[in-house]
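Feature request disguised as a bug report, sorry. It would help if multi-protein outputs had a clear separator. Right now it looks like this:
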Amino acid sequence: MSSARKGHTEFIGKQQQRGRGLHAILYFLLSIVLVSACASLGTPDGGPYDETPPRVVQAQPENQATNVNRKKISILFDEYIKIENASEKVIVSPPQTEMANVRADGKRIKIELFDTLRPNTTYTIDFADAIVDNNESNPMGNFTYSFSTGDEIDTMEVSGYVLNAADLEPIKGILVGLYEVQADSLTGDSLVPDSFLRTRSFDRVSRTNGSGRFVIKGIARNRRYRAFALQDMDNDFRFSQKSELVAFDTALFASTCRPDIRLDTVWRDSTHYDSIQPMRYTHFFPDDIVLFAFLEAGQDRHRLKEERLVPEHFTFYFTAPADTLPRIRGISFEGDGGFIVEPSLQGDTVDYWITDTTIAYCDSLQFEFSYLETDTLGQLIWTTDTVELAPKVTRAQQLKEIQEQTEKWEKEQKKKQKRNKNLPPEENPFLVTYIAPDIKPAGSVDPNQAPLLTFPEPILDIDSSGIHFQLKVDTIWQDAPFELLRSELSPRRFQLYVDWELGQQYRLIIDSAAVHGALGHWNREIKQDLRVRKEEEYGALFMHVITPDTGVVVQLLSGADAPIRTERASADGRADFFYLRPGEYYVRCFVDRNGDGEWTTGHFDSGLHPEPTYYFPKAISVKAQWELEQDWELRGIAPMRQKPAKITKQKPDKDRKVKERNKQREAEMRKRSSKKR
């Protein structure tokens, strides 16, 4: 090889070595950068956590732009973002007939509207707190983007609450809408709501949060509006179904605003605050609209489902009650089958008991089932369906289970006999089924209670000579007067009425075979001791309702918001509750406008609001041997602040905040550093 060629080869080799070395250095530096970046995302301990919320950099069209005619919007942020619970939180107003496409794409949110843009209209896309950064889910906070198709943009707001009219529960996720009311559309009767809600969608719309609170933005100044709430089941932004919760306010309002100051707390950490600073802001009015949502009476009735768990019994379920029972005509059996029919207290469930074993033990029942159902015009009409019902557990399966249980029981008996040959023989508990009532209350009773006996099957007959009721006098049980009356609504329930004496002991005795069930079963002897508490074990509560209304019905509630006792207030507003066990109680009342003693719902087309409901704003503690007098000003507290938090089932949404994990990280680093020293 020539020296020139050899030198050229060496030069090339050195250049390749240098290139490989440079590649290695670059690879090493890149690896450090990647490791550092990855460590900073997760920490510990690649650096501080990202606690900076996303920030809008640019928007096309610009936020609050005017004379906009484009349907595609792009909002650019300073970091990668995502939208959480978009379908629940993002609201486009005016509402869109065809749902808008709102999606996150890297650092952008892209919005596409499909409806024709209305002229001279302000559009708002309210994201609430749904926008968070991609890595740490730091919330941006409440954000609303808006634009106008006209020369001006409307920036006013109104706010308020939607509560369930029956129990003042906040309603989460219900639509709240406004209609602008023109002067020429007003009628002389302002109590009847406009027909807008049945004929066209809202002009402005929002949705309530977990506190039932709503904020509607993009409101025009000096325009008059009327507010409605709607649980829009079919997404048409109209009140079109009885199954939709609805609320209306007959008052007209116009939005106004003024400068205001609020005090914001600056926290040093999770338990210590640093300072309280005044913050200037624009206060929009009205901010206290309260809408009471209700379901109208006479809900649409449809057959929901049916089930036959055992051969002797089947049940039909409906969406609403009816005052006429269904009719049955047998296909696999003759006539109506002679079934015993038991409607539920609400009337939306009907139980059937098959007393003829030749019908009950068939694996399949076929019959025509005629019932009242709501038609397309909202009228109840007779509908007939052909039904076939098979039991979930057949008679053959029942007999097989009895045989298996009997064999197991017989083996146990043989073992017992081997251990003790003098044991008396026992009756096989699986060959005979006995019926026993569920008695409530059992044990201790109050002097104003009538225990309820509920049997597991309809009762054909009770031998009254086999029913005994006794009072314990000293150590001797003596007969005492009583009445045991069958419920008018249920063939399985009986009520025990006694003129109780405080502090006494009683005993209910039902002789063996005194009760004959419709499915051929009898009872064993039943003994139930009942004790009436002493007078000193009770307290009393006297509520004095201060209200201009008459006909107030006061309800004493448990911690589950369920009525325990109900009393109609006297003409001077007094409702007395005697013989209360010590504990915490809650109180609500309603104004019984129609005098039927029951809370009555509203009717939209008639402009009839539900009967007003009020809650005493705190728990009332009743102590033994204490009589508590309590005044109650019904309208002294705003409705959204009346119901005590302890019995409010719908809890407020949790505030979404930056996690502030860097403070915890710094504390841990200081702790590790002190240990090393």
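(second protein starts here, but nothing in the output says so)
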Amino acid sequence: MKTHCGLWLLFFFFTVTIVSQDLGETYISAWKKFYPSKSLKSGIRTSIFQYEDRSEASIIQWLGFNERILLELSKPNPNIDPIDGRLLRVQAQSEVDNWGILAEHSSSLRMYSRLIAEAIPSIFEADYLIAPEKSELLCKRLVSIEKLATAGKSNLKKASRNDIEKSLEDLSESLNYLEIDLQKTMKLHGIPKTCKDFDTDIAKAVLGIKALLTFAKSTIQNNVTELDQVLGVREYDRRLQLYTDSELTSKNLAEMALNEIKTVKGLMAEVSKQYLSETYPDKTQPLGDLEIINLALVDMEKDAPLNSIDYLEFWKQLADAAVDFIVANDIATLPKNQTLQIQTAPESAGPAARIGWVASAPPFDPNPMTVLNLPSIPDTLPQQEQIDFWASFNKPFNRMIVIHELFPGHYMQLKISRETPHPIRLLFPYGIYIEGWATFTEKVLLDAGWEKGNHLTLLAHLRKRLENANRSYTSVQVHCNGWKQDQVLRFSTEISLLAPQFAKSLWGRIMNSPLQLTSYYLGGAQFTELLEAEKLRLKDKFNLKMFMDTVMKAGPIPINEFYNILKNTTPN
């Protein structure tokens, strides 16, 4: 009787809380408790004092909470900003999908092994905690590790072979760390064993991991499922519509992307002809468009960095030039106090070092430094391999991609959006906006005169635009039409003219993030349509700087919401 009464009171509490508070605030508060690690990575430092609970009861409670949020959002005039409400609906639907439909907790051992592996290191990295706090927190994390191991044994019903193999590695490393390295690390950092149950807690955590290892090697390995990473048409469409918050289907996406591929190849042929006729006026050009494009691409790839030192210096100059260009042409309002660091990607990053990445500052980080990690390759590798690598990251490509990555692309947009008063938009951004905006800004600056007269920079942009459409097209073909890796590689290089370095890395991304790959093409196209509509609406009154500032200040929201926002900001 007491149990039923307690559950009723818990439901009543959640219902009253949801109704009486702003739904966004209510959701974020619950999200931080269920995902303390994600919350910490978002810059919310108080989340260091909690850790994930993946017991069945916790998952059921979280699932029910998201279902109640969806119910509240479906009612007339819910207590939340309408645009934030749209983002929250997608977020809550995604959570119901993950924990209810896909049920990751019952089919992924690695979900548990990763949480176990990441439980301790974040404490040593927390330079805002004093030693006694870290000591007490270590004991709590050891308890969390034991609970995670127990939850894994209780919840798991099956796992894929690949998932099990990687998880066993994680768990073995965690076991070795707790048994051998943890106390050495504590001593190195001057952290005493102040909590009275430390030895007991570490022993229980070790036993918990060993029990999970035994369970994985026996019960789960005897129930291995060759989980098909290919989604199929129905599942791909379901996820695509959830990701885009639209009725878009895989068939329509593939048709749109293929048309874009054909269109862009025609534009590339025109630019290549102009380049070749100006550069080699005495030479007869080939008759075929593909031959013409390839001749220009060969020249583009010859204009390449010599090494990582040359590349780093070139990028620093490019960043400064992009800032000067934006100011001189009154394109957008630059953020105050630059917080950008450009460096060569460390070799320890593994495969990621070959393509580079932007380590953006978390939305709520009190020290919001953004680090651009440039692609790198060891100078110990064969000379030809290095030449081929740098050809993919040639200088015309970088003159274009600096716009995408930095100004006014990712770095600038994320820095400005941090100032939005809508935390929902920072924690649960509309995915298509992020890459769509960065892609869109390439054309904005090129149209404004960036690298004017440099046909190879424009060609690099068109090649990137072609790559974006290819990402969407091949994502659909793999997951809906059974394409294999060799088909993707052949189509990407022969039809979509991708640089080898990018074509080689595409398969992994198609398998791991098929929907995110669509955001470059879809988002870029939607922003382009928005810009053209605003120019048509305002005619001579159109102001590019106001347009750019409005979009960045609003934050990463569904792009079709900007039609009303801009109409109310800049009426006819």
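Even a blank line would do. Unrelated, but nice: The mean pLDDT is 93.
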